[in-house]
Specification:
By secondary structure, the protein is mainly α. The chain contains four helices and no strands. Helix 1 packs across helix 2 and helix 2 crosses helix 3. The chain is elongated.
Length: about 90
């Protein structure tokens, strides 16, 4: 059995790589436009191999969808926090 700490470390690493991919893709799209961004550019700018990138996402569209979902989730979390703070003030 693998120690729990090891599982957490791998999971944290994967989360960091995924976030880096999403952030890099968003920056490349802002700089070059949606139709000009390639998986090779994303991999190079993120500092990972293309094979590794394809383990996380099948294409640029999937990366953008994941980025959008992360943005929406973040906004919903912020709204819930404001709602909870307003409820606590009553």
């Amino acid at each position: 059995m693998v120690p729990r700490l090891w599982d957490d470390t791998i999971q944290a690493h994967r989360h960091q790589v995924r976030d880096a991919i999403l952030d890099t893709t968003a920056a490349l799209v802002a700089e070059h436009g949606l139709l000009q961004v390639t998986m090779s550019q994303i991999a190079e700018q993120t500092g990972i191999g293309r094979a590794t990138l394809y383990k996380y996402f099948p294409d640029v569209e999937a990366i953008l969808l994941a980025w959008h979902q992360r943005q929406i989730t973040g906004h919903l979390d912020q709204l819930a926090e404001v709602r909870d703070q307003a409820g606590a003030a009553d």
